[in-house]
Amino acid sequence: MNNRVGLEEMHRAGFPMGGEPLVALDLADTLAAESTPGDGELLTSPERSTAWWGLQLPSLPASPAPGLVPTLRLRAAIRELLEAHLDGRSPDPASVEEVNAVAASVPTSPRLGREPAAGSPSPEAELAAHTRWHTEHGGNVALAAVAREAIELFGDAGRLSRLRRCANPDCTMLFLATNRRRRWCAGSVCGNRVRVARHYRRTHVPQAGQEER
After folding, report:
1. In 3D, which of 130, 146, 157, 180 has the Cα closest to residue 28?
2. What is the domain range of residue 119?
3. pTM over 0.85
4. Is residue 213 part of a domain?
5. What is the tally of structural domains in the chain?
6. pLDDT digits (tens, 9 = 90+) for 110-168
């Protein structure tokens, strides 16, 4: 699915970060561990969680929005895996098990179905491959799909090598660098903050040997 939400749309909904190639990364970034205590939690209520999922669900297999508690539990597990990778340490085994369990909670199977041929005005349909998500025994498709995204990221060494933390020392949001020059979670947010702080220091902080006025 390619209907990924963009950063501007996330901003309009009141979320400072989003629009990464993987929903799993957007989910990890709903806990912005910034230097100011208490400011980092973006999913502060079931309503906020539902609003966030409303932006993400179009790029996932058809699913109702997950509840807040299982969302936060999966987020904690994914965040731990990503942070452990960036820190060069082994992740908490419980987080590994959580991601695996959520991914396995909704099995899938390949399925052939008929759909209209692309660009053809004919009502005739042709066979096409689909993925069926089996919810007969419970589980939420959106959560399972996001957990699988995390697993697939760790199975792709090239992509995983592009995982970064924001270069703003007061921000720990994560992203996949699409090019070597990307340093910020969002240049319009953290990039500007760092540039403004740097300019302030140059123009307001007395240089060595100068008297403070």
Report:
1. 146
2. 107-136
3. no
4. no
5. 2
6. 999 987 666 656 566 789 999 999 999 899 999 999 999 999 999 999 999 999 999 88
